[in-house]
Each structure stands twice: as C-alpha cells, then as structure tokens.
Amino acid sequence: MKEKKCPACEKGRLVPVEDIISQIEGYVFVEKGERCTNCGEEFINENEGQKMINLAKKLGVWGEPLKLYRKLSKSARGTVLRIPSDIEKNLGIKGGEEVAIFKVGRRIIIEVV
Ligand SMILES: [Zn+2]
C-alpha cells in the first residue's frame, strides 16, 4: 500500500479510518476516510461525504438552522437542558419520550428512541 502524506501538516501519514464524526445541524454522521497520524486532521472520502449530504437531505436537515445554543441550568436533581421549541417541533417531541444519551468527546448526543 502506498503511503499518503498529510496535506495539512506534511509530516504525518494518512491511515484509513471508519470513525470520522461529522455533525450537520445537530445530527451526527460517522464516515469512512483517512486520518493523519501526526496532526489528527481528518479527510472524508468524497463518496462518503456525498452519502452524508444525501442522508442529511433525506432527513430534511441539510441547510436547516437547527444548531442552537442553550445554557444549561441547575436543578436540585442535576443539570437541566431545555430542548429548544424549534427542535421539539421538528422532531415531534411531546415530552415523556425516552432518549438515549451518547457522549462523543465534548459532545452530548441525544437520540429520541
Ligand atoms: Zn497531518
């Protein structure tokens, strides 16, 4: 296999990975691509990138402004995140749904199940 040099730092080499995380408007996509061994820069395969865009379009999230900023608040029982009403409407959340919570680095992903 031919080694590819990283175009970002020009020191590392690119190794194939299958766990590149991209986020589009709050949705998280896991893609295949390459990652630099030195600087950690990630390069998504062109095909994979297109797949992700198509999927995002299907989900209706491509180009939608659904990344919103909120402050956490503290209650007696812990930290509370209020779900913005736009997102509630978009996902049809009524309250009382079960959610799965994932931690990916500094991101918290909430999936309505
Ligand atoms: Zn690099």
List keywords for this structure.
about 110 residues, alpha+beta, Ubiquitin-like (UB roll), 2 domains, 2 helices, elongated
Structure characterization notes:
The chain has 113 residues and is of the alpha+beta class. The chain folds into two domains: 4-59, Ubiquitin-like (UB roll); 73-112, no CATH class. The protein has helices spanning 46-59, 85-91, and strands at 4-5, 13-24, 27-36, 42-44, 73-75, 78-80, 99-104, 107-112. The strands form three sheets. It has a four-stranded antiparallel β-sheet with strand order 1-2-3-4. Strand 1 (4-5) and strand 2 form a beta hairpin. It binds zinc ion (ZN). The site of zinc ion (ZN) has 8 residues, from loops.
Low-confidence stretches: none
Structural category is alpha+beta
Helices, by number, come to 2
Mean pLDDT: 81
For the record, the CATH architecture of the largest domain stands as Roll
**Which percent bin holds the helix content?**
10-25%
- The rough form would be described as elongated
- H/E series: EEEEHEEHEE
How large, in whole angstroms, is the Cα Rg?
18 Å
**Structure summary, number of beta strands:** 8
Q: How many structural units, i.e. domains?
A: 2
CATH fold description of the largest domain: Ubiquitin-like (UB roll)
Give the strand line-up of the largest sheet.
1-2-3-4
Write the layout of secondary structure elements.
Elements: E1 4-5, E2 13-24, E3 27-36, E4 42-44, H1 46-59, E5 73-75, E6 78-80, H2 85-91, E7 99-104, E8 107-112
Antiparallel strand pairs: 1-2, 2-3, 3-4, 5-6, 7-8
Bound molecules: zinc ion.
Zinc ion (ZN) binds at residues 6, 8-9, 12, 36, 38-39, 41.
